[in-house]
Amino acid sequence: MRYSAIVVSVVIPAHNEASVVGRLLSGLLAGAAPGEFEIWVVANGCTDDTAEIAGAFADVKVLITPQANKHAAMRLADEHAEGFPRLYVDADVELGSEDVRALAAAFDDADVLAAGPSRALPNERRPWTVRWFYDVWDELPVVRAGLFGRGVVGVSREGWERLRALPPLLGDDLAASLLFEPSQRRVVPEATVVVHPPRTGRALLKIRTRALVSTLQAADDPELASASGSARTSVSDLRAIALASPVRATPKVVWFMALTVATKIRARRAVRTKDFRTWHRDDTSR
Predict the structure, then answer these.
(1) Domain annotation covers residue 160
(2) Residue 11 domain boundaries
(3) Residues facing 124 on adjacent strands
(4) Beta carbons of 107 and 3 less than 8 angstroms apart
(5) Phi, psi of 206 (to 5 degrees)
(6) Residues 6+ apart with CB under 8 A from 25
(7) Does the pTM of the predicted model rise above 0.85?
(8) Which segments of 64-189 does DSSP mark as H helices, in order?
(9) Which of 82, 122, 215, 281 has the largest CB neighbor count within 10 A?
(10) Interval 57-80: pLDDT, tens
(11) Is residue 271 part of a domain?
(12) Rounded to whole angstroms, how far apart are CA atoms 251 and 159?
């Protein structure tokens, strides 16, 4: 059976996302036939108008919970959503209806259990501290091949069964990438998500700390431990990027490494205190 013949479920956990959730929903619904997608917005722990804004869109169903927890919000939506493939989408990204269709089509291959879109990172009006980091990060093979850092993860029914069996983890997208073999996951070039980078170096450090804490937490999970090393940056990859364009790329690689060291210091502090719950959120890009 082709997935294009059934309804795709889109789950959007949203915590105080009033400034961006309308942008995402407008893109998802533009060009979509009525009822083509089953869209669930889970307003979790919101103190703003996220739920009201989402509820104003036709074909969007809203769930409200007082608990500000992304993992719990996703599981709450799973109790109501019926369609597969199922897409989990961060509220602060941009994704269109054609992108959803392209992601759904990837699951026509029964071997594909998880999929994500290609990534666009608009760097306009970002300081060099942010631009240089992403210039290097986006060239890393592990970043290009993994499903993390995209704000969108799609799973088949079988993939969903495996994903929901995991305990709550800070990096849900990282878990989705590590849980599946390379042959079972796919980055779909026909689909593109716009991920808005932070606007300050301080905000970048916050979200990179969250990413590294997620990697360290995954290394402690029996299901993910063997693959967690594949999500880490290798020195050889950084050397290859620098050698490809020594004059332009080398300073960027040096900055990337410096920020990574600072991130490791902060992340290890969180791990020592077993703080796997603090959500280091970037509000500058919203």
Answers:
(1) yes
(2) 7-198
(3) none
(4) yes
(5) -65, -50
(6) 12, 39, 41, 54, 57, 60
(7) yes
(8) 70-78, 97-106, 128-137, 141-145, 157-164, 172-178
(9) 215
(10) 999 999 999 999 998 999 999 999
(11) no
(12) 41
